[in-house]
């Protein structure tokens, strides 16, 4: 099982996401039915390297957020149109 480390972010919006991307971070969210959504900040380089593996899209991922473990799957990834950058990632609870 692949493991990702993330931090909770409190602010949302276009300007906050742009500032995160300038500091080599990637905004994201975890959501699911009857569960609270969690806004995330992930390290772009580790996420980019991990998404090159085929297991990233097919298997469950262990997401560590403030020493709590969540089992999630990738739901949606937004990529830059011509740069090799990830803009946003959505996870769903398993």
Structure, described:
The chain has one domain: Ribosomal Protein L25, Chain P, CATH 2.40.240.10. The chain has a six-stranded mixed β-barrel with strand order 1-3-2-6-5-4. By secondary structure, it is of the alpha/beta class. The model has no long low-confidence stretch (mean pLDDT 95). The chain has helices at residues 14-22, 44-50, 55-58, and strands at 2-8, 25-32, 35-43, 61-65, 68-79, 86-93. It is built from three helices and six strands; from the N terminus they run E-H-E-E-H-H-E-E-E. It is 21% helix and 52% strand. Strand 2 (25-32) and strand 3 (35-43) form a beta hairpin. One of its GO terms (molecular function) is structural constituent of ribosome. One of its GO terms (cellular component) is cytosolic large ribosomal subunit. This is one of the proteins that binds to the 5S RNA in the ribosome where it forms part of the central protuberance.
């Amino acid at each position: 099982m692949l493991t990702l480390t993330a931090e909770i972010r409190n602010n949302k919006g276009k300007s906050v996401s742009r500032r995160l991307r300038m500091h080599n971070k990637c905004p994201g969210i975890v959501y699911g039915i009857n569960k609270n959504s969690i806004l995330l900040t992930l390290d772009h380089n580790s996420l980019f390297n991990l998404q090159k593996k085929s297991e990233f899209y097919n298997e469950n991922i262990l997401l560590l957020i403030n020493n709590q473990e969540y089992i999630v799957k990738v739901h949606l990834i937004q990529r830059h149109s011509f740069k090799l950058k990830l803009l946003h990632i959505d996870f769903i609870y398993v």
